[in-house]
Amino acid sequence: MVIDLNTGQGESLAYADNLKTTLDWYAWANDETILFGVGTTRHQRGVKYSVTRLQVMTLGKDDEPRNAIRLRNIQGSQLPQLADGVISLLPDEPDHILINLALDVANHPSVYKLDLNSGRVHRVLRAKSDIYTWVADRQGRIRIGLGRSDTEMFVRLYDEGGDNYRILWEYELFNAPEIDVLGFDLNPNILYLRAEHEGRYAVFRADVSQAEPEMTLFYSHPDYDIDGGLVYSPKTGKAVGIRHGIDGNGIDYWDSDYQMLQASLDETLPDHHNRILAETRGLRRYILFSSSESDPGHYYLGDRTTNAIDYIGSRYPQVNPTNHSGKEAVRYQARDGLELDAMLTRPMVQAEDGAVPAVILPHGGPAGSDKLSFDYWSALLANQGYVVLQPNFRGSSGRGFAFSNAAIAGWGAEMQDDLQDAAHYLVEQGLADPERICIVGASYGGYAALMAAVKHGDTFRCAVSFAGVSDLEKLVSDARHFSNEKVVRKQLGTDRKRNRANSPVRHAKQIETPILLIHGSDDDIVPVAHSRDMHKALQRQKKPVRYLELEYGDHHLWHEQHRLETMQAIVDFLDEHLKN
Question: pTM of the prediction?
Answer without folding.
Answer: 0.93
